[in-house]
Design brief:
This protein is α/β, with parallel strands linked by helices. It contains 14 helices and 14 strands.
Length: 385
């Protein structure tokens, strides 16, 4: 019997880390054939050139889809989604996969869901049922209603999907594949490479031996006009703490131009000797860097997911992760320099938080592949009453 063809679309840096172990498990599964589509910012160098990392990891890329409309504004996001529907529709028509898999809640993933649904291709959604702020909330729940099967990260997420009217037999708790990476890093935690030599970046060559911060802050798409103000508050707070700081460039969302402007302006005006900027890292290298950090500062979901599993202290700023289930490693603060600084210092004075397995146990990738191998294909659905 021929192997099932599983088409997975990766559109951005965070999407790859969210699905990497599942991609590897699908690729290695005897009953499955991976048809990997890499699209949008995952193809663009200034957003980390994720496609090169994918190829270094030994995963074959079936198609590359250029669909990112430049502009880093709500209009550009909408146009990117529309262009993605057009381009991905053609790709799906040529590939004719048995299942299409879409990941999480970035706006480009809605294009994957629409293009697959209108071609009667069974759609599998990974990481539905979660709660956050910003446009991600609308995107995630819209994809849930388009999807035919739901591979969720937690029991809480499964319950929300059921309450949205999805059939219980279509919902499977697999855990989050990004936790698989964290589990592997926990087994081999040593940061056994020079981060500046391997990844370059811009800024001072820092001595990390006495402790360091990592900052990963994205614009909030529903507050995109405040992005410059938001990042300026974080810069002020982190500068007061005075620890060596590794700062990662934001995702290409509405408001990213404001975030980037704030970072560049601060760099040029202050020439900080405590700050170094990176665009991207291999997911496992990034997690090792986080594991050794005194604290992660910003608003990335990595602070909620992987850092919870690893027991890394996190200062979560603003509304971007509002409502998401979190562990005891997270302190939530508004965009206030004083409160951000106080939360960082609070973490520095405490013992390291304990690990929390809220989002999985490190075996999600293999569970997802095994589920795809036996899942009944369907593209018709009825609301569960």
């Amino acid at each position: 019997m021929s192997r099932r063809r599983i088409c997975v679309v990766v559109t951005a840096r965070p999407s790859y880390s969210r699905i990497k172990t599942a991609l590897l498990a699908i690729h290695e599964h005897g009953d499955l054939e991976l048809e990997l589509v890499v699209a949008a910012s995952a193809l663009i160098d200034r957003y980390g050139g994720v496609v090169r990392q994918i190829e270094r990891d030994g995963l074959p890329v079936a198609h590359r889809v250029h669909m990112l409309v430049d502009g880093e504004s709500p209009v550009a996001m909408a146009k990117t989604t529309g262009l993605g529907i057009i381009e991905l529709s053609t790709v799906f028509h040529h590939l004719a996969p048995d299942f299409v898999v879409t990941v999480a809640d970035r706006y480009e993933t809605l294009a994957t869901a629409v293009a697959a649904s209108y071609q009667n291709l069974p759609l599998v959604h990974v990481q539905g049922g979660e709660v956050t702020g910003s446009i991600d909330e609308k995107v995630r729940h819209s994809i849930t209603k388009l999807a035919d099967a739901h591979l969720v990260a937690s029991e809480g997420a499964a319950e929300r999907v059921r309450r949205m009217g999805e059939r219980p037999e279509s919902i499977f708790v697999t855990g989050c594949p990004s936790i698989d990476l964290a589990a592997a890093v926990r087994e081999s935690p040593a940061l056994d490479f020079d981060v500046f030599e391997r990844y370059g970046g811009v800024g001072a060559q820092l001595d990390l031996s006495g402790g360091y911060l990592v900052v990963l802050q994205h614009p909030v798409t529903t507050e995109h006009d405040l992005a410059l103000e938001h990042v300026s508050a974080t810069l002020e707070a982190v500068s007061r703490v005075g620890l060596p700081t590794l700062w990662f460039w934001p995702n290409p969302d509405a408001g990213s131009d404001g975030t980037s402007k704030g970072l560049r302006r601060y760099r040029e005006q202050h020439r900080p000797a405590w700050l170094h900027f990176f665009r991207n890292m291999a997911p496992d290298d990034f997690l090792r860097l986080l594991l050794g950090a005194a604290c992660l500062v910003g608003n990335s979901s990595v602070g909620i997911r992987e850092c919870s599993f690893l027991g890394v202290p996190v200062v979560n700023i603003g509304s971007r992760q509002a409502g998401r289930e979190r562990g005891g490693n997270v302190l939530d603060v508004p965009h206030s320099p004083g409160q951000i600084e106080a939360a960082i210092r609070d973490h520095l004075a405490r013992p390291r938080p304990s690990e929390d397995h809220l989002y999985g146990d490190g075996r999600a990738g293999s569970r997802i592949a095994d589920r795809l191998a036996v899942l009944t294909p369907t593209f018709e659905k009825r609301i569960a009453y």
